[in-house]
Amino acid sequence: CDCGKSYHPGCCSLQSSQKLKKRSTWKCDDCRPPSAVRNEKSSKRTGGPKRGRRMIRPDEEEVTNDGDEYFPFKSGEFIVVKADLQEEFPPIWRVDGKTLLQKYEPFDQNGEKLYRNISTYSGWTPQNRNIYEKIPVQFIVQSRMETIVKFLRSEMVDPAEEQAFLEQSLNDTAKYQDNFEVYIQTLISQALDSNFLAEIFAEKDEYFLQNVEVIDAVTEERRVRLVTAVDWPKDCSIQSSVAT
Predict the structure, then answer these.
(1) Which among 125, 155, 185 is the end of a domain?
(2) How far is CA 14 from the centre of its chain?
(3) CA–CA separation, 174 vs 169, rounded Å?
(4) Which pLDDT band holds residue 148 (cuts at 50, 70, 90)?
(5) What does residue 242 show for φ and ψ, rounded to 5 degrees?
(6) What pTM did the predictor assign?
(7) In whole angstroms, what is the distance from residue 95 CA to residue 89 CA?
(8) Nearest to 84 by CA among 64, 104, 60
(9) What are the pLDDT digits (tens) for 197-216?
(10) Is 57 among the domain residues?
(11) CB 212 within 8 A of CB 190
């Protein structure tokens, strides 16, 4: 080369011996100008996506992020077509994975209407998930051969009624927000100073005492409602747990 470097066959990659026969001189890496064709290939190679990488389509990414929304029912749960609820004894379905539903047909047993699984399946997709509604059932027989359940239709909750009940409950408790904040302050102060409650009772501090009494009264009223709403067993420890 003009710079004094020598060509060594076998280790110099810029010129092959065949090309050297056609040319009387050669240039090393530092002196030889870059090839436009080689740069163009290099830019093409680095410009596109790398080999071996799988490109994620937007729809696939959306399904991954919203999996719970697309499959709202768990395997083993029972559902019913909302339109079929107009029937007295509608067919019900059991979720079998994320794509199959097994049908349960009604039948009479000792004057009671029960449901038994049959060898009928239906496919379902995320697009039609809104036509189904989850239902409560009671297992009567569960074996390898058959499964018999009772559709507890009376225990179904109307979504509109549930939302109205939730809003009513929030409105009923919202008026105690300020009292509850002072109540929490009292508990924190007692945790930091074990003599705090004794001091406010001794000093008759109305700021704390009035708010504590309001929350205590509301809590006791809710406790009584809970205890009297259910016929608890005598040996049940729930009542004593609620009382504490």
Answers:
(1) 155
(2) 59
(3) 9
(4) very high
(5) -65, -35
(6) 0.43
(7) 19
(8) 104
(9) 999 999 999 999 999 999 99
(10) no
(11) no
Task: Classify residue 137 as exposed, middle or buried by CB count within 10 Å of its CB (0-12, 13-18, 19+).
Answer: buried
How many domains does the chain contain in total? 3
Residue recorded with tokens 């007692």: 190
d(CA 242, CA 237): 9
pLDDT at res. 169: 85
Range of the domain at 109: 70-155
Distance CA 228, CA 238 (A): 12
170 and 231, same domain (yes or no): yes
- Whole-angstrom distance, CA of residue 235 vs CA of residue 121: 45
Write the DSSP symbol of residue 54. Answer: P
For residues 81 and 143, membership in a common domain is answered with yes
Angle, nearest 10°, between helix axes 206-229 and 196-203? 110
Show the tokens assigned to 115. Answer: 């449901």
Query: Does residue 110 come out as left (phi exceeding 0), alpha (psi in the -120 to 50 range) or beta?
Result: left
Pair (23, 92) in one structural domain: no
Clarify whether residues 148 and 80 are in a common domain. yes
Look at residue 83 and give its three-state secondary structure: helix
Residue 41 DSSP SS3: helix
CA angle (140, 145, 149) in 5-degree steps: 20
